[in-house]
Design goal:
This protein has 294 residues and is of the alpha/beta class. It has two domains: 7-184, NAD(P)-binding Rossmann-like Domain (Rossmann fold), CATH 3.40.50; 195-284, N-(1-d-carboxylethyl)-l-norvaline Dehydrogenase, domain 2 (Orthogonal Bundle), CATH 1.10.1040. Helix content is 44%, strand content 15%. It is built from twelve helices and ten strands. α1 crosses α2 (40-57). It is globular, with a radius of gyration of 19 Å. The termini are far apart. The structure holds 1,4-dihydronicotinamide adenine dinucleotide. The site of 1,4-dihydronicotinamide adenine dinucleotide (NAI) has 26 residues, from α1 and α4.
Length: 294
Amino acid sequence: MKIQFLNVGIVGSGAMGRGIAQIAAQAGSQVHLLDTQAGAALAARDSIHDQWQKLVGKNRISAEQAAAWSAQLHIVDNSAGLAHCDLVVEAIVERLDVKRGLFADLEKVVGPDTVLATNTSSLSVTSIAAGMQRPGRLAGFHFFNPVPLMKVVEVIAGLKTEPAVCTALCEYAKQMGHTPVLAQDTPGFIVNHAGRGYGTEALRIVGEGVADFATIDRILRDQVGFKLGPFELMDLTALDVSHPVMESIYQQYYDEPRYRPSVITAQRLAGGVVGKKVGEGFYRYENGAAQVPA
Ligand code: NAI
């Protein structure tokens, strides 16, 4: 089993993949980015460069450091380009069939000791591994958005995950400057299970007409002390990511009413009003600043 991750593949270069790529390069790895959407990996690499240039501007890192990290980022066109990786982390769409298909492809090209990891928010690691030739090499490696700032990562063992895989991922998380937390392979793991009520109850309060979303955010942020209100958080995560997570946890707990997703988020998702990344969610975003719609 590889315990040194010199070459790390990242599949999916959206919000999460690019964040994981950034901290993997900062940890000293050569990072290989793969995305099926044309131009997405290139856009991710540019955005990571911008993050490092901002740090240079604030005198937090030197220009030489930024250049050295930038040289560690590589783009590959297909899974064959990840053949030599010691670790491959996927951060693609949250769908069991697609993730299973990806790991089946990866197992055809990577070496026998390569560790595979999924950044899934809510799917069972055991289920993702079920179709694999060697399910013991897969673990959950669940980061939070924005990855460079959110310093906790859940390391999740599926039913067949080899303990050495979790140990190696915990060590690597520390190299990345993150704090690993071991979690059981249960729906939502720790954070997305414990945090369920934050969003679902806030949505119920809106649905019952008790208060509007901006008032709930303001109270929970300014009076209770959360960094972000539940609607600000949903806008940041984006409903195309968080609504399927709500559905998945609800289904996995056999339709437990406490976890029932909201028709409010279902409707907004159907309408494409998913959050900050498209300029409009519960709030409208002008130059990055949240505005309450009239
Ligand atoms: P995103 O939509 O920003 O990015 C996903 C990327 O994966 C896109 O660029 C897409 O083109 C690419 N992609 C899709 N299928 C692919 C495939 N088969 N091969 C290669 N690339 C593919 O999504 P985001 O937010 O980065 O989420 C990715 C994963 O991380 C999901 O499983 C999500 O549940 C999980 N996650 C998301 C968090 C969030 O706050 N956004 C937090 C923690 C986990």
